[in-house]
Structures are given as structure tokens and as C-alpha cells.
């Protein structure tokens, strides 16, 4: 499971010209799921994201977590994070989990994030054609892969 975290001042997801979800200060999280991913990946990744100290403290040092700043979270499923680009110029997405595997893990990720944050989070719609808008704060963008825990 891969996640791309972007510290944002605001972010939103628009579907068919209508804003589906939006947040203010917090994290935009793009989540990619592989066939081998499971509940253990979710259990490791969600607390890592919520507790990662990437928000500035009073001295301007990245020393505060999403929990510390009472930030919001917007989670969007992103199968293209699993792209293979070694051969040719057309990415292959064979490493992305099919919906029967990915949807339950995505939903588990969302529920786990809500539990860790102690509040509702915003989401995209799995498989929808979404337009994502955000203002990256910093910019701060971090990639986490559960296959690289050690």
C-alpha cells in the first residue's frame, strides 16, 4: 500500500462539476492498493500518517502531527500510484489491486483514519473521474510505502 501525503491549506474533490468533498488545513492523502495488501498494511499506515510530525510548531519547525493541529483529512483512492514505468512510455497498472480487493481495504483505511483522528474525514469516490484541487502548504509532500516499513 502506498500513500502520498500532501500538507494542504485546503483541498477538494469535484465530480461531474459538483464539489463532492473539501477540507481546510490538513492532509490530502492519495492511497494506492496492491493485491498483496491487507489489514496489517492499513493498521500500520493510518497511525503513521496521523502521527507524522509534518506541521510547524510555534518556532516554524515541523514538529506537530495532524492530531496536534486538529487538522482535517481528505482521502482519495489512486490506482495510478501502482504504475510500472520501466518498459516503454505507457504505464502498466497490473500492480494495482482489482476493486474486489481494493474497495474493502480503501473503506477500512477510511474507517481507521476516522477512528485515529476522532472525527469524520472527507473522501473521493472509488473509481470515479475526480478533479482534485489543492493548495500544498510548504510544499510538503511525503510518500509512504508499507512495503518499506523497516
From TrEMBL:
CDD domains: Dtyr_deacylase
SUPFAM superfamilies tied to this protein: DTD-like (SSF69500)
Motif mapping: Gly-cisPro motif, important for rejection of L-amino acids: 138-139
UniProt-listed InterPro entries: Daa-tRNA_deacyls_DTD, DTD-like_sf
A single cellular component GO annotation: cytoplasm
A GO molecular-function annotation: tRNA binding
EC identifiers of the protein: 3.1.1.96, 3.1.1.-
Gene Ontology process terms (BP): D-amino acid catabolic process
Pfam families for this protein: Tyr_Deacylase (PF02580)
Biological role stated in the UniProt entry: An aminoacyl-tRNA editing enzyme that deacylates mischarged D-aminoacyl-tRNAs. Also deacylates mischarged glycyl-tRNA(Ala), protecting cells against glycine mischarging by AlaRS. Acts via tRNA-based rather than protein-based catalysis; rejects L-amino acids rather than detecting D-amino acids in the active site. By recycling D-aminoacyl-tRNA to D-amino acids and free tRNA molecules, this enzyme counteracts the toxicity associated with the formation of D-aminoacyl-tRNA entities in vivo and helps enforce protein L-homochirality.
Summary of subunit composition and partner proteins: Homodimer.
Annotated domain remarks: A Gly-cisPro motif from one monomer fits into the active site of the other monomer to allow specific chiral rejection of L-amino acids.
Similarity comment text for this entry: Belongs to the DTD family.
Listed name of the protein: D-aminoacyl-tRNA deacylase
Amino acid at each position: 500500500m502506498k500513500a502520498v501525503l500532501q500538507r494542504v491549506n485546503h483541498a477538494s474533490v469535484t465530480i461531474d462539476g459538483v464539489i463532492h468533498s473539501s477540507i481546510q488545513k490538513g492532509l490530502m492523502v492519495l492511497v494506492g492498493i496492491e493485491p498483496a495488501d491487507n489489514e496489517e498494511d492499513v493498521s500500520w499506515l493510518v497511525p503513521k500518517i496521523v502521527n507524522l510530525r509534518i506541521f510547524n510548531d510555534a518556532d516554524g519547525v515541523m514538529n506537530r502531527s495532524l492530531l496536534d493541529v486538529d487538522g482535517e483529512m481528505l482521502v482519495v483512492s489512486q490506482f495510478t500510484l501502482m504504475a510500472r514505468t520501466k518498459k516503454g512510455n505507457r504505464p502498466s497498472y497490473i500492480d494495482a489491486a482489482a476493486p474486489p480487493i481494493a474497495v474493502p481495504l480503501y473503506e477500512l483505511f477510511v474507517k481507521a483514519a476516522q477512528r485515529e483522528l476522532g472525527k469524520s474525514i472527507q473522501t473521493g469516490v472509488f473509481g470515479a473521474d475526480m478533479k482534485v484541487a489543492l493548495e500544498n502548504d510548504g510544499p510538503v509532500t511525503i510518500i509512504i510505502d508499507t512495503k518499506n516499513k523497516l
